[in-house]
Valyl-tRNA synthetase (Helicobacter gastrocanis), 280 residues
Amino acid sequence: MQDFIGLGVVGNFAKHLEQAGEAHSFINMKHIEKDAPKGLFPFYLPNDPSYLGRYCMDNEVMVLPDDLSLRAQAEPEIALECEITYNDKHLVESIIPRYFMAFNDGSIRNFPAKRLSAKKNFSRASKGMGAKLPIDRFVYGGVCNDYSIASFLTREGQTHVYGENSKLVKYEYFYDKLLSWMVEMLNTQQDTGTLENLQEILRTYNYPSKFLIAIGATPYMPFAQEHFLQQDDTITIIAYNHRRYSFDKILDMVSSNTLLQASLADTSIIQQKVLLESID
């Protein structure tokens, strides 16, 4: 995925922005719908000279700055591997999702930075990505209808439910509504507040076709709201076919540390150990 542009959707699950302490950044933004996502941010731009050029994916560790004053959280969500097409005026014409996967869009809440993107790409392993699952058709009735996303944090031998267990169709914007909104944002989002001008990014990269788009984090459960990440925590995020597996079965396997040994079909799994490192 090192050749893909990495983008994230801000605020696509009810309550998440408020829980993350980010809602104030978008209070003056006007949207047609109250619960509409707020915008798109880059988290990885291949070979960019800034922090955004740092490849930040790792499915075994999540690396945090060795600074106990910084408050980090995992962000359990779904990412889409997409192909983007343009018209003859270099405006985005269509977004075609090919695969979906579990994704950790880790964030440092109190990172001293103007841009939301700096709170996202803060180390060589601020993100995690599970196995890719093929999309038959990204419409209601397609494969994504049968999937949920769940997440857990294991600390000192105890496993806690981290994010809300959520069906993918519970995203505020999903399927055609999400794709239409993303096309609009890629063509119109300006350099505003914590967000970047997306047309400028597309122009700089000569209108690329390959994108990885994280579509928004689930709300946090009480433990995640009250406890930030620390050394030796283990984060587990799983997209799973809820017609095949129950949430209780997934929780049992995470708690017994047997999830990765089970070779479960129809799942996309991230399991990362949290490390602290000195980061320039």
Remarks:
- The CA atoms of residues 253 and 262 lie 8 Å apart.
- Helices lie at 16-20, 175-188, 198-204, 222-226, 247-255.
